[in-house]
Amino acid sequence: MTEEIRFTLDGREVTAEAGETIWQAAKRAGVEIPHLCWLDAPGYRADGNCRACMVEVEGERTLAASCIRKPKDGMNVKTASERAAKARKMVFELLAADQPPQVRHPDPDSKFWKWAHELGVEGSRLPARERFTPDPSHAAIAVNLDACIQCNLCVRACREVQVNDVIGMALRGHEAKPVFDFDDPMGNSTCVACGECVQACPTGALYEKSLMDEQAQTRTVWPDKTVDSVCPYCGVGCQTKVSVKDNKIVQVDGREGPANENRLCVKGRFGFDYIRHPERLTTPLVRREDSPKRGDIQVDPRNPWEVFREATWEEALGRAAGGLRDIRDTHGGGALAGFGSAKGSNEEAYLFQKLVRQGFGTNNVDHCTRLCHASSVAALIEGIGSGGVTAPFTAVEDADCFIVIGARPEQNHPVAATYLKQAAKRGAKVIVIDPRGQELMRHASHPVRFKPGTDVALLNAMLHVIIEEKLYDEQYVQAHASGFEALKEKVAEFSPEAMAPVCGVEADYIREIARTYANAERAIIFWGMGISQHVHGTDNSRCLIALALTTGHVGRPGTGLHPLRGQNNVQGASDAGLIPMVFPDYQSVEDPDVRRRYEDAWGQPLDPNRGLTVVEIMDAIHEGEIRGMYILGENPAMSDPDQTHARAALAKLDHLVVQDIFLTETAWHADVVLPASAHAEKLGTYTNTNRQVQLGRPAVSPPGEARQDWELICEIARRIGLDWRYSGVPEVYEEMRALMPSLANIPWSRIEREGSVTYPADDEDEPGREILFGEGFPTKDGRGRIVPADLLPPDELPDADYPMVLTTGRLLEHWHTGAMTRRAGTLNDLEPEPVACMHPRDIERLGATAGESIRVETRRGAIDLTLRADRDVSAGMVFIPFCYGEAPANVLTNPQLDPFGKIPEFKFCAARVSRVPQAQAAE
Ligand SMILES: Nc1nc2c(c(=O)[nH]1)N[C@H]1C(S)=C(S)[C@@H](COP(=O)(O)OP(=O)(O)OC[C@H]3O[C@@H](n4cnc5c(=O)[nH]c(N)nc54)[C@H](O)[C@@H]3O)O[C@H]1N2
Ligand SMILES: Nc1nc2c(c(=O)[nH]1)N[C@H]1C(S)=C(S)[C@@H](COP(=O)(O)OP(=O)(O)OC[C@H]3O[C@@H](n4cnc5c(=O)[nH]c(N)nc54)[C@H](O)[C@@H]3O)O[C@H]1N2
Ligand SMILES: [Mo]
């Protein structure tokens, strides 16, 4: 039990909770003691080095640093005694003497100056010593160590909070200074620009360039307002504070959300300026009569006038809706399809699928989840009756073991990765399974590099060990699982010895990782695209589910299944029904009872058949089945596999409406382009990977004539004959909620009040349930179903013509198709050009050198990129990120689908690599 401590603070009786410091107890009692090296935020340890928080403890000869000193029963503490106040003032005077003068200070409004002013210290009359040359080498962060007070917060921020281990303290005493790696300029160091150090620094020695003068030495920008919102990038769902000056975002800081506790990554913190890029769409566009569509067209977004002309909203909306209506009326709803967006809000997703189902009269509505975790969700729904995560990633705090397989969280879910790395430091066993090396393997007790595409071999071998050595949880299996016997039979043929040559992991090591996971008290599995984006993606996920169900590692704190969801709202967009087989909350369109409920709600008969999926829709266009599309906030001309095929399909459409914030490669093929609002310009809810429904608030207004996405969906709806009237986003949310049991106790007002609510919640005043399925599963028999999986090879194996394996994925700084991040100044500065990564040995074998231009070819096409040496890429493989329009990876990738999740094999196809002759490369 926690015991309270009673002590006297400035003559008052106060209590401290066990473990609390004097500083913390004082704060709760309403007394804020000056402080610099102490940061009152989760994850920060007190260091007690700056002496700014000294207090007097009766009976003690020396003053005590209140940030580390814990009170004792009966202690008498004086924060305001003359001695303490004088000592504190002295600390500030000494520090101020060495600060640059306020008129040219990196941040005259910093915490340091705020306290200094409060204590009556106005800076030193002496000129500060010139000690350090400024370091402006980083794209986003200015380093002005003249303002550094050696408080060490940046080191703790970097090493202990974000666990990036870049910043250290060099030298001692007065000479001490923070250094990046081996005292490299920040811009050349391994810094990942999460900016945690900037947020923590009390003086502005580390500061955002976006708030400073050209030389990056003096602050010149002060925001007009700060808005609480949520990050637009990944599924982690970091809460943000967005600062705005003259309707322009000038700074983003982390806020204390449940998924980030003030932390951010480089994209969330520094990737905000894309919304003011000159290429932003600001007026509706209509295709010119004299500009025929062709799949191989290239449009310069800065000069689209050969292809498009400006139109009024009336004309654009009339044409957009008219074309869709005509196709529906002539060819039936089945000739239409829609792609909604996982970048948009829940309300937009709900309205979009309603428009397609009610207005177009078809279930042909899908979104990027199809290219993402569709196979994971198919396996989860089959296995445990629910597609969401069973536990938030923060549950890793309670785990003594976790597996990360086919995911790269440090790069793709960086803030989630901070929790994983902290758990590793705490001593949790970490099993990272990936063909490609990654930073997280440095923190792993069990790094496992294996052959790509052989997950089923490895995972079945682990299951073999678990069953053979009786490491499974017999009681759990008896009470909560079905299919165990069939699994036992299946994996009998998958001994580690038999699978070792298949997956390239030694039999003993397979046994060891199987034992480590199974014998853990609490273990959790995280997975990503390396599992899902295969023709056997559903089988891969089935094996993971089998691991959890046999060992009982689900339903308790520190256990669970967590597919790391990708887009900021992919969980929400899926929940809201942007899926061709199901209405909101995964209710089958083929179930007559379900359908009747929706027909009653929407007042008309609905299509009883499942619709087509993303890649199937592209095929159906080629077959002449689908003639018109509405695409909102997706860029399939870049993100779909076999791009030439996809672009030819888009060009073949009789009518294409694209609603986006940029003239994307997809929009090049449009008849009408509707300029929409970006994330920072709108109100809405977003559901992150942890099932936390959070509120995004508008910080700035849309540029030019750009309009709100949800309003545009309604405009189209009305023009195709629906009587839609919504007073605003909250009304849409409430309509959606009435149809979604998962949101039952989460009214709009609650999200507004609490900022983040986990679903499901049992009551309006009860917190949502983080850990699910302690008492069985929402399946027909209440049991989790184990589905054994067989070993299938990737669809296209290397051969004599195409001897390498091509794998694709992401970079930390870029987002998917680059639409946003290639237009974000800092991010594009950090990763400016298309790269292909290969192992140095393969580069040597090719007779090439890193930095030169190479050509990568597959049976579908060829692209040229700059060669980068990367020891993490296995020999025989080439890795390409898919964010570069000038060298689009998906010209190369294989569109072959997983039969259950209908996801293409982005992670594996046969390729060949050659050098590009110099003359050609220069062209
Ligand atoms: N910076 C950045 N972050 C992002 C995104 C982004 O575009 N940029 N996108 C977001 C989205 S939508 C998503 S879905 C997530 C994706 O996040 P992740 O799931 O981490 O995605 P990837 O980097 O594509 O692939 C993950 C890993 O799969 C491995 N892999 C490849 N083949 C295999 C295999 O056969 N077996 C196994 N076990 N592993 C394999 C790769 O080596 C890679 O390390 O990221 C989200 N976050
Ligand atoms: N080769 C390869 N291909 C892949 C993958 C891979 O690993 N390898 N991964 C796949 C995965 S996991 C995913 S999730 C998909 C992602 O594929 P997409 O979803 O197509 O990719 P994004 O670039 O995120 O596209 C989002 C679009 O929305 C626009 N947008 C952003 N905000 C807003 C807004 O508020 N309103 C509107 N109207 N538009 C907005 C952007 O400008 C952009 O055009 O890619 C898939 N493709
Ligand atoms: Mo994704």
UniProtKB/TrEMBL annotation:
Q: Which organism is it from?
A: Dichotomicrobium thermohalophilum
A GO biological process this protein is involved in?
Answer: formate metabolic process
Identify the residues that the record assigns to the 4Fe-4S ferredoxin-type domain, covering every copy.
139-169, 178-211
- Alphabetic keyword roster: 4Fe-4S, Iron, Iron-sulfur, Metal-binding, Oxidoreductase, Repeat
Family assignment from sequence similarity: In the C-terminal section; belongs to the prokaryotic molybdopterin-containing oxidoreductase family.
Q: Which PANTHER family match?
A: FORMATE DEHYDROGENASE H, RESPIRATORY NITRATE REDUCTASE
Outline the extent of the 4Fe-4S Mo/W bis-MGD-type domain: 224-279
The Gene Ontology terms for molecular function here are:
4 iron, 4 sulfur cluster binding; formate dehydrogenase (NAD+) activity; metal ion binding; molybdopterin cofactor binding; NADH dehydrogenase activity
Identification of the protein by name: NAD-dependent formate dehydrogenase catalytic subunit /NAD-dependent formate dehydrogenase iron-sulfur protein
GO cellular component entries = membrane; oxidoreductase complex
Q: Which residues form the 2Fe-2S ferredoxin-type domain?
A: 3-83
Q: Which InterPro entries match?
A: 2Fe-2S_ferredoxin-like_sf, 2Fe-2S_ferredoxin-type, 4Fe4S_Fe-S-bd, 4Fe4S_Fe_S_CS, Asp_de-COase-like_dom_sf, CT_Formate-Dh_H, Formate_Dh-H_N, Formate_DH_asu
